Amino acid sequence: MRVTPTTIGNRIDALDMLRGFALLGILIANMLTFHSPYFYIDPHSYFSTPGDMASYKIINIFVEASFYPIFAMLFGYGLNMQYEKAIANRTSYVPMMARRLGILMGIGLIHALFVWSGDVLFSYALMGFIMLAAVRIPKRWLMWIAAIVYLIPTLLFIGLIYALYKLDPNQLMDGFVDIQQIELAITAYAHGSYGEALVFRMTEWLLVGFANSLLGVFMILPLIMIGAAFSKRKLFERAAEWKGRIAVVGLIALVAGVFIKSWPYIDGHNYYNTLIQQLIGGPILAIGYACVIILLCQLPIFMTIFRPISKAGRMSLTTYLTQSIVATLLFYGYGFGLYGKVDIETGSLIAVGIFVIQVIFAELWLLKFRMGPFEWLWRKGTYGKSMPKKEEKQQVL
């Protein structure tokens, strides 16, 4: 593979930094699904040892559902940057982005079927096609549309579940676990060959992953739209100017996010409280985390110390895909077979260890090349033989 040597270029370092921290949080949350049949269990009963209960509580409140929204918003930020760049250069935006999104969708589908069924790339690409039109909406409307598309279905669904629960608490079957699917998952992933895991993974993605991709219109698309609206307002570019407002929003979001995400531990673990925690508290806490990182990026010492994390963020596609490849090889039966054999704390430490290795790899790789290997393949598929010049740094994913 021939890749152009790296140059420093004109990137927004805070974007890469935030993307890197988001990838770490996503891996810690995803680790639950890598080493256990998390899709089919009631975690509050399945993780029954004191250590697992404490570890899960920390991840459930502070990590789960609070980092993928950051990644989605950054995806939207990058889409709008591409749109504005095309306008400035008087080039055609839709054909180029359609090819780019089509390739990303293909990568996501391969990832979902052949590596890990929890893929998000397919959903992002699918929502990206809708954004080809939505990115043209003025910034003053885009945020409101995103809020309406997200909040109205979410609040209606939570309200419906709450009403059903009040009418008959037993019909929602709080704490229900799918014993048959748990056994099938353990058989395929813990003890099965690659072929057996592949068959189960394909079925799992069609039943769970593909359905979630379609629901992305209400869950992922609004977050991408919010990111595009932030891009139109030049949030990262004007962060130093707006640091007072960012600090206020960040403080409010952190306090509110932690409180809402802790609510099931206060009021009880039932279905509607879990929905409130994940769908409302998750994105709010994500905004708080993003504000903190944006403010910290204004400090030179922070950028110096944590710059290697921004390198992993700069190679976000490579980082995300290799997380799945490494984790499935560690836990699945066709690899090291650790599925179901580690506790949550150990799994989280493994996640941090994988990320540290990825940071080191990104640092070494970018000493010589200007983009990650999967980013190169993505761009090669988009532009064909006509590769962009070294100084053309695109921040899309």
Automatic annotation (TrEMBL):
<feature type="transmembrane region" description="Helical">
    <location>
        <begin position="317"/>
        <end position="336"/>
    </location>
</feature>
<feature type="transmembrane region" description="Helical">
    <location>
        <begin position="53"/>
        <end position="77"/>
    </location>
</feature>
<feature type="transmembrane region" description="Helical">
    <location>
        <begin position="21"/>
        <end position="41"/>
    </location>
</feature>
<feature type="transmembrane region" description="Helical">
    <location>
        <begin position="97"/>
        <end position="114"/>
    </location>
</feature>
<dbReference type="Pfam" id="PF04235">
    <property type="entry name" value="DUF418"/>
</dbReference>
<keyword id="KW-0472">Membrane</keyword>
<dbReference type="InterPro" id="IPR007349">
    <property type="entry name" value="DUF418"/>
</dbReference>
<feature type="transmembrane region" description="Helical">
    <location>
        <begin position="144"/>
        <end position="165"/>
    </location>
</feature>
<feature type="domain" description="DUF418">
    <location>
        <begin position="232"/>
        <end position="385"/>
    </location>
</feature>
<keyword id="KW-0812">Transmembrane</keyword>
<keyword id="KW-1133">Transmembrane helix</keyword>
<protein>
    <recommendedName>
        <fullName>DUF418 domain-containing protein</fullName>
    </recommendedName>
</protein>
<feature type="transmembrane region" description="Helical">
    <location>
        <begin position="348"/>
        <end position="367"/>
    </location>
</feature>
<feature type="transmembrane region" description="Helical">
    <location>
        <begin position="242"/>
        <end position="260"/>
    </location>
</feature>
<dbReference type="InterPro" id="IPR052529">
    <property type="entry name" value="Bact_Transport_Assoc"/>
</dbReference>
<feature type="transmembrane region" description="Helical">
    <location>
        <begin position="280"/>
        <end position="305"/>
    </location>
</feature>
<feature type="transmembrane region" description="Helical">
    <location>
        <begin position="205"/>
        <end position="230"/>
    </location>
</feature>
